[in-house]
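Predict structure. Input: DUF866 domain-containing protein, 164 residues.
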Amino acid sequence: MKFDLQIKGDLENVQEFVPSPLETFEWHMKFKCAGCGEEKDTYRVISLNDTSGTKLGRGEAHLVETCQFCRHANNASIVGFEKAVGIPYTESDDGTFKTVCTFDCRGLEPTGFRFGGGYRIASSKSKTVFNDVTFEDNEWTDYDEEGKESISVLNLEYRFVRRK
Ligand SMILES: [Zn+2]
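Output follows.
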């Protein structure tokens, strides 16, 4: 079962923001077990660089776990990146939901996402780039010295959409 992670935010003087570098970016996710419906309170970290062999003999996954309750062996993987480049959220996406990552989940259903850190943000007013940005309380503000404008990403939201 594939799930798209869609995000939206309000951009001020931002050309785009994107997870960077994608290989080591940490997706903080919450899941529930599709077998028994049990939801975990804690966030799990999924990263492209981090794979482990699954017990199902289907090769590798980015997250493998056995449900504490029903003992199902579940896994989840990041899919859809042919190049090691993230999908940017750009000024033309401002205020609308956009898919930025897709997860292939077997026995798991994503229920939560935390934006966290590790983003690269480019100004639309100058060539200024902010690296390793962390979103706190789903927002970020700074000042672009070269563009002489404040720059911000506000009201970040997410949702998961199950692929048909
Ligand atoms: Zn379970």
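The chain has one domain: 2-162.
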